[in-house]
Design a protein that fits this description.
five-stranded mixed sheet, 5% helix, mainly beta, 1 helix
Length: 100
């Protein structure tokens, strides 16, 4: 039985091609859903999040998928569950956090 890995991609606002955050894990990530807020400020140790500094992101869509990956030079064969999280920028203020 192949191991299962998990991949989370957070896409820049309005962009379906550029995921400045992509993380692989051997354990599942928490579930994201439409309307959740994601604050890149807390991911400062990810250099590629610099382009989103000062931006609060609202999740607009989440796409899930399953891939069967063959092993290679640096990776063993596995089943990968990926979650692609699409976002829009919202004001980083109290209104974004307490409005319905």
């Amino acid at each position: 039985m192949k191991p299962v890995t998990f991949n989370l991609q957070i896409f820049a606002p309005g962009d379906a091609d550029d995921a400045p955050l992509s993380i692989d894990s051997s354990t599942p990530f928490m579930q994201f859903q439409r309307g959740d807020l994601f604050n890149p400020r807390y991911g400062r140790h990810f250099d590629h999040l610099d382009e989103l500094a000062g931006t609060l992101l609202c999740i607009v869509k989440v796409e899930h998928g399953i891939q069967e990956l063959e092993g290679g030079d640096e990776m063993e064969a596995c089943i990968r569950h990926y979650a692609r999280v699409y976002t829009e920028a919202v004001p980083d203020d109290e209104g974004a956090r307490i409005s319905a």
